[in-house]
Amino acid sequence: MKSIDSPSVIWTPWMRRALQLAALAEGYTSPNPLVGAVVLNEAGRLVGEGFHLMAGMPHAEVVALAQAGSKAKGGTLVVTLEPCCHQGRTPPCTKAILNAGLARVVIAMKDPDPRVSGDGIFELRNAGLEVITGFLEQEATFLNRAYVFRVLQGRPWGVLKWAMSLDGRTGLSNGLSQWISSPPSRAWVHGLRANCDAVIVGSGTVRADDPLLTSRGLKDPEPLRVVLTRSLDLPIDAQLWDTSKAKTLIAYGPEADQEKFNHLPKSLDRLALTSTNPIDLFKALAKKGVNSALWECGPVLASSAIQQGCVQELAIVIAPKLLGGFPQMTPLSDLGFTSMEQVLVLKDTQMFRLGEDWLLKIPFPITKA
Amino acid sequence: MKSIDSPSVIWTPWMRRALQLAALAEGYTSPNPLVGAVVLNEAGRLVGEGFHLMAGMPHAEVVALAQAGSKAKGGTLVVTLEPCCHQGRTPPCTKAILNAGLARVVIAMKDPDPRVSGDGIFELRNAGLEVITGFLEQEATFLNRAYVFRVLQGRPWGVLKWAMSLDGRTGLSNGLSQWISSPPSRAWVHGLRANCDAVIVGSGTVRADDPLLTSRGLKDPEPLRVVLTRSLDLPIDAQLWDTSKAKTLIAYGPEADQEKFNHLPKSLDRLALTSTNPIDLFKALAKKGVNSALWECGPVLASSAIQQGCVQELAIVIAPKLLGGFPQMTPLSDLGFTSMEQVLVLKDTQMFRLGEDWLLKIPFPITKA
Question: I need a surface site. Which of A160, A182, B190, B349 has the fewest CB within 10 A?
C-alpha cells in the first residue's frame, strides 16, 4: 500500500488535471504538442493553471505561472511535457520557471524534440530544483502520439477512416455511396476531422463524391484539405475549390502539367512533390507542421498509404446495411498478400455504437501477424 | 404494483423454468418444436418436470406428468407450448393431462400447427380445467422461431453466416480463406451448426474450400449437410462424401445429368428439385422436417437466398485483419440495387466479442429501408 504522502499519491491527481487541460486544445496546437500545467503553492494548494492554446501563443507553463504570480514561490509546477529550453516563437520555459522561484517540477514525459530531449530537465536540475519525471507518462505519450510520431519519424500520424456496410461495401456498383453511415456516425467523423491537422483525398474521390471534408465548424480554422493528384486532372467545379471556409492544398507529382492550374481557382494552395507516393506527401506535410493527417480516400490510395507506413490508426464505421454489388467498391485495394500468414492482424480493436452503426476502432500499432 | 398472489407473479418463474428445460433440446427436436413443462401439486410445489428430447420421444407434458404421478392431482401444469390434441407419433397430450386430474394449465403460446392451433386449449377448457395463456409468450415464440416459421411459411428458418476481415474480405484474391477468423469464432460456428437442422453450401464452396460442415460432435446426429448443385459437376473427392459422421444430401436441378452420380459414393442422399432456386430447396427441406437451415455458401448463392426470402437471421464474424485484394471475394454478390433507398437496412444489430474477432449478429427481421 502506498503511503498517503508518497509522490505518486500527491502528484498523480494534479498530473491528471494537467492532462485534461492539455487535451482542451486537441487539434489546435500543431506543429506544437498538447501541453497542460498546474502550479501549486508551497502548501500544495492550486494557484495557477494553463494549457498551450496554439502555436505562437504562450506555453502552458507560462500561462499557469502568470496566473500564480508570486504565489508560485517555493511551490510546484506539474506539467505534462518537459519544459522547453530553447528560444522558439516564445522564450524558453525553463527561464520562466527559474524566475518564478519554484522548488519543484513534476513532469509526465520528456519532449522528443531534439532541441529539448532532456536538456530542459537537466537545466532545471542544474539550477537546484527538484525534478520528478514519469508521472502518467503513458497517458501523456498517448495524448501526444501524433506530435511524438512526427518529431521522431518526420511524418504525420496517419489515421485511415472508412464507412462500409455489413457486407464490406463502400458504395454501390454504380458508384453511389451517400450515405452508407448514419447521421451520428457522420457527426463523429466531423469530430475526427477536427482533431486532425489535414484531411487527404485523391483526385478520384473529388470526382466521385465531391466531398466537403470540413469539421462543419467544430474546428476553426478548419483542417487543411489536401488533394493528392498525379496528373492534375481535376474537375472544374468542386466543393473543395471553395476556400472561404477551409484551405485546400493541391499536392501534385512531377509528371503533372501545371498548365492545368489555369482551370482552377487561384485560392488553392499548391505543393509540388517529387512523387505522389503517400510517404512523400507525408514528409512534405510534416515539414509544414502537420502532426496528424486523416485519409478519407479511395481503396487504391488507402492501400498504398498502409503499405508505405502512413497509417497508424484505423476507424471503421460499419453500417448495419447490406449493399451487395458486383465484386468492387471494397474499402481497400490490393495489399500484395498471397497467403494468410502475410495478412495484417490487428490487435486491441474497440467497438462502439454510433447510432445504429458500429464503429470499429483499432489503436496503433498495426503489426504484421 | 402487482399483488403477491397475482397469476403473473406466481406462474412467471415456473414458465421461465419450463423455457429453460425446453431449450435443453435445441437443435434436436425437428420437425417438432422445443417444449418444456413443469408440474406443481395442489399446494404449488414442484412435483415433476420434463422436456421434449427429440421427435418420436415423449412430449414434455407426458414426461413431467409421469414424474409427478399421483401428486399432479388438483395441481398445475406449466408448459411452454399449447398441448397437442391429435394422435401423432405419440398420443395426444390433452388426454394425458385430463387423466392426471390437473386443475389448471398455464401455457406460454398457442401451437401454430393447424392440427392444434387453439383446439388443445379448447379441449382442456371444455373439460373444466382452468387454462391461462400468454405467459412469457414472446420468449416462447423466440425460442421456437424456426418451428413457427416452418409451420406457417412452409420453409425453414434461414440463417446466413459469413466470416470476413475488417476490409470486408472473405478470402484473398487467389481464393485462400482458411482461416480468416480465430479459433474461438470457429468454435462458435460449430455451436451454431449444432442448433440447426441443415447446413447448406453450393458446389463452388465444395470445390474451393472442401469443408467438413459438422458441429465437431457438439450435436449427434450431426446436422444434415446439403450441397445445392445445378449441374452435378462435383469433385470426385470431398470431405462431405465421407458420411460416416454426418449425412450429406445432394440437391440437384432438373438439368443435371444424373449419370454423374456414378462418380460419387452411394452413401450420399439425393434430392431432385424442380429448380435450384433457394426457395425450392427450402420448400423441399421443410417437407423433410427441417426447421432451421444454415447457409455457409459463397456470395452468389447467399445473395440469391436473401432475395428469395430464405434468410431470416445473419451472423457475421468480423476478424480484426486487413486482407485487401483486387475488388472481389466480398461476402455478397449483386442484390440488384441501384440507389441507396433500395438497400437492406438492418435493425437491432448486436455485437459480441469472439476471441479477437467481433461478431455482429442481426436478429430478424431483415426489412427493406
Answer: B190
> What one-character-per-residue DSSP string does A103-140 give?
SEEEEEE---STTTTTHHHHHHHHTT-EEEE-TTHHHH
Q: Which residues in chain A have Cβ-Cβ distances shorter than 8 Å to B180?
A: 340
A133 closest CA partner among A292, A297, A11, A290:
A11
What residue of A is the nearest CA neighbor of B362? A320
User: The complex's ipTM?
Assistant: 0.85
pLDDT tens, A181-204? 878 888 888 999 999 999 999 998
B61 is catalytic: yes
Q: Residue B262: helix, strand or coil by DSSP?
A: helix
Best of A330, A345, A346, A361 to substitute, by most chain B Cβ atoms within 10 angstroms, is A330
Cβ count within 10 A of residue B230: 15
| Inter-residue contact A70 to A106 (CB < 8 Å) | no
From chain A, pick out residues whose CB is under 8 angstroms from the CB of B352. none
Q: Do A362 and B166 touch (CB under 8 A)?
A: yes
For residue B327, give the chain A residue with the closest CA.
Answer: A328
Cβ proximity of A319 and B171 under 8 Å = no
Cβ distance of B346 and A322 shorter than 8 Å: yes
Indicate yes or no: CB of A176 within 8 angstroms of CB of B339.
yes
**What pLDDT sits at residue A247?**
97
Question: What are the percentages of helix, strand and coil residues in chain B, rounded to 5?
Answer: 30, 25, 50
Question: Which helix (H) or strand (E) segment is A38 a member of?
Answer: strand A36-40
What is the number of other CB atoms lying within 10 angstroms of the CB of residue B268? 18
Residue A318 near residue B166 (C-beta atoms within 8 A): no
Per the CB < 8 A criterion, the answer to whether B215 and B194 are in contact is yes
Q: Which of A173, A327, A343 sits opposite B329 (nearest CB)?
A: A327
Instruction: Locate A69 and state its grid cell.
Output: 504570480
Helix ranges (H only) for chain B are: 7-23, 60-68, 93-100, 119-126, 137-143, 145-153, 183-194, 203-209, 278-287, 299-307
Is the C-alpha dihedral spanning B154, B198, B264, B186 positive or negative? positive
Alpha carbon B111 to its chain centroid, in Å, reads 17
Under an 8 A CB cutoff, do B360 and A169 touch?
no
pLDDT of chain A, 369 residues: tens digit per residue: 667 778 878 999 999 999 999 999 999 999 999 999 999 999 999 999 999 999 999 999 999 999 999 999 999 999 999 999 988 888 899 999 999 999 999 999 999 999 999 999 999 999 999 999 999 999 999 999 999 999 999 999 998 888 887 778 887 777 777 777 878 888 888 999 999 999 999 998 899 889 999 999 999 999 999 999 999 999 999 999 999 999 999 999 999 999 999 999 999 999 999 999 999 999 999 999 999 999 999 888 888 888 888 988 888 887 777 777 765 445 554 555 565 555 555 556 567 555 566 565 554 444 443
| Among A314, A330, A358, beta carbon nearest to B168 | A330
The single-letter DSSP state of residue A291 is -
Cis preceding-peptide flag for B162 (omega within 30 of 0): no
Alpha carbons B173 and B325: distance in angstroms, whole number = 5
Q: What is the 3-state secondary structure (H, E, C) of A177-193?
A: CCCCCCHHHHHHHHHHH
The structure's pTM equals 0.86
Output b/e per residue, B36-60; b: 16+ Cβ within 10 A. Answer: bbbbbbeeeebbbbbbbbeeebbbb
Q: Which of A26, A42, A49, A61 is catalytic?
A: A61
Gyration radius from chain B CA atoms: 23
